Amino acid sequence: MSGLKIRKVAGALGAEISGVDLSADLPDAVIEEIRAAFVHHQVVFFRDQALTPEAQLAFGRRFGPLNIHPYVAGMPGHPEVMEIVKEPGDKVNFGGGWHSDMSFLENPSIGSILYAVEIPEWGGDTLFASQAAAYEALSPGLKATLESLNAVHSAGREYSSQGHSAQKRASMKVVEAEGAVGEFIHPVVKVHPETGRKALYVNPAFTMRIDGWSKRESKPLLDFLFEHSRYEAFTCRFAWSAGSVAFWDNRSVWHFALNDYPGQRRHMRRVTVDAWPATVGKPALQTAEGVT
């Protein structure tokens, strides 16, 4: 027995896992159990961890190759580690809007692992929204329509000089992306490769328009989906403490870092997990039946 304890935290998504030290060289069976919970619950949380950047990298690599963000500089010597810092005098936070990490890439990441180094005395929670639950709540007719559509994603708006993320360029070394980004097309409804569960795959930060439609034509449908997808019943909320970890599935989850702690410092570290290359032949886990 691994000794893991897995407790659901909300109806739509989210579970807290205890009984594990993520800095240890964990057996493959424990990693498989964590991955099964991650896939099933869509976001999993851990408390009271002590992760050096090296330990966080090692844990992340157990799930796939790690991403180097194209517009945010990583730690010196550890380009895969993104330090997300809001200083007491900063007005804007990084990640302060609903989004799915890295959907603007041709091959988006599968998950993000965020570790709390320093948290404010109050505030700074993160919200998560299940896009699988959002899809499943739609009518059969709209589901059928959406399954025939693709959407265009790009970092061009969010990382432009006026974009929310680019406004963190001073404290986080964010590069403005104007004229330097491409557009990539992804299905509006993504089928999860490890469970077969369908989820909406559009988000306010990086989805530009429906493929083949103008921005004007796309706006009413996207606005409806963006509003629908953050309905409270599809969400959970995580209150951070120093040493906490959240690991969420970017294939089916939005998140939103709340900016409600003026005058305080918040310091997080993130590594982002990509999919195993097809040539590696890493076996996909099946649905985690029985994980609660």
Automatic annotation (TrEMBL):
Q: Which family does it belong to?
A: Belongs to the TfdA dioxygenase family.
Q: Highest taxon of the source?
A: Bacteria
* Name assigned to this protein: Taurine dioxygenase
Where is the TauD/TfdA-like domain positioned along the sequence? 6-272
Under the heading Pfam families, the entry gives: TauD
Q: What is its EC number?
A: 1.14.11.17
Q: Which GO terms describe its cellular component?
A: cytoplasm
UniProt KW Cell membrane keyword: no
**Any idea which UniProt keywords this protein has?**
Dioxygenase, Iron, Metal-binding, Oxidoreductase
Q: Name one GO molecular function term.
A: metal ion binding
SUPFAM superfamilies tied to this protein = Clavaminate synthase-like
